[in-house]
Every structure is written in C-alpha cells, then in structure tokens.
C-alpha cells in the first residue's frame, strides 16, 4: 500500500493512480474541514468525469483534544453523507487501533469495488477417465520478484532510477489444475 500526503500538491498527481482516498481533517479546526471539503469536491468531480468508483473515507482526527473541538461529529457525518463516503473519528495520539480500523475499512471498500469490477471467467470441469492424478501447478504467472511496478508518483522515481528493470518480463505459463474427489480425477479449465 502506498500513501500520499496531498497537502499543497497538484491533485492530478494522486487522482490518476489512487484506488481509495482517506481525507483527514482536525476536529479542532474549521479551516481543516473546509480544506477536506475542497478535496472531497475535487475527488467526486474526478469520479463523475472518469466514471470511476473510488472508495472515500472522511476522518475526523485528534479526538484526544475533545475539549477543544470546534467541528461537531454531526457536521463530519453530514459532510460524509453529502459526498457518499464513510466516516470515522480517531486519534493517532491515543490508540493506533482506531487508526488501523480506518485503513482496514478503506482496504475492504477497495477490495469490494475491485471484486465487483473483476470480469468473471467461465470454469469448466471435466472428469479424467484415466483415474490417475498428475498434480500440475495451477495457472499462474512467473515473474521476477525483485521488479517493483511503478504505480504511485513516489514509486515512479524508483522506476526511473532503475533503468535496467524495464527489461523485466512477465512470462505467462498456462497449465491445467487437477483434483481428486471420491477416487475420481477432475481437471479444471478456465
């Protein structure tokens, strides 16, 4: 997972590669809520233009400073409903578990969207009449594990510094999986 702090940066830099957004504001600062609102507006405009469904989570931070709160929880929830995103309040100073829950929630939302967009492939199963089971590895890709795919703007710099990595190739290997149930062998094709 790559994270990117957008403060003072060009939004095009993070909009194109992101699979999810965590927009954070401080519960003790109205101006940070206004900045969060601007980011939410930019993200939703991008979603309308591109048709992408990107999970967004609005997070009110610094709940450990409750006595200095200027942004009510209800205001944060209302903004989250307006932009159709999840809402959380947390404090990095008190307990890392609440911050962890925010990231887990966003990752689950990203997985749901990715799963929904994943094309389904038909699965064909045939009985192997020979009765012999020849274990064959399942269909997969063999690739160099040292190659890191540049996805985020940060990792683009890593890619540029390693010109020889552009020669890394992904080699597809197609095989058939087999399994045995009740003394019968089956092959799976997709």
Automatic annotation (TrEMBL):
> Which stretches does UniProt call biased (Basic and acidic residues)?
154-169
**Disordered: region residues:** 135-169
Reactions mediated catalytically: GTP + H2O = GDP + phosphate + H(+)
Kindly give the InterPro entries that the UniProt entry links to this protein: P-loop_NTPase, Ras-related_GTPase, Small_GTPase
Q: Which UniProt keywords apply?
A: Hydrolase
Q: Does the keyword Hydrolase apply?
A: yes
GO MF annotation terms: G protein activity; GTP binding
Q: Which PROSITE patterns match?
A: RAB, RAS
Under Enzyme Commission nomenclature, its number is: 3.6.5.2
Q: What family name appears in the similarity comment?
A: Belongs to the small GTPase superfamily. Ras family.
Name used for this protein in its record? small monomeric GTPase
């Amino acid at each position: 997972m790559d994270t990117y702090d957008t403060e003072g940066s060009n939004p095009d830099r993070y909009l194109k590669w992101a699979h999810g957004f965590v927009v954070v504001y401080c519960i003790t600062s109205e101006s940070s809520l206004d900045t969060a609102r601007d980011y939410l507006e930019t993200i939703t405009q991008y979603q309308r233009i591109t048709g992408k469904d990107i999970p967004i989570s609005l997070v009110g931070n610094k709940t450990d400073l409750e006595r200095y709160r200027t942004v009510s929880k209800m205001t944060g929830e209302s903004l989250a409903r307006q932009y159709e995103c999840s809402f959380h309040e947390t404090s990095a100073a008190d307990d890392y578990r609440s911050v962890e829950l925010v990231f887990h929630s966003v990752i689950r939302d990203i997985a749901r969207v990715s799963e929904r967009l994943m094309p389904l492939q038909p699965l064909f199963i045939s009985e192997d009449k020979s009765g012999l089971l020849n274990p064959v590895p399942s269909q997969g890709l063999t690739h160099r594990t040292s190659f890191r795919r540049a996805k985020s703007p940060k990792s683009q710099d890593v890619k540029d510094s390693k010109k020889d990595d552009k020669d890394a190739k992904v080699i597809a290997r197609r095989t058939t999986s087999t399994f045995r149930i009740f003394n019968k062998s089956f092959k799976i094709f997709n």
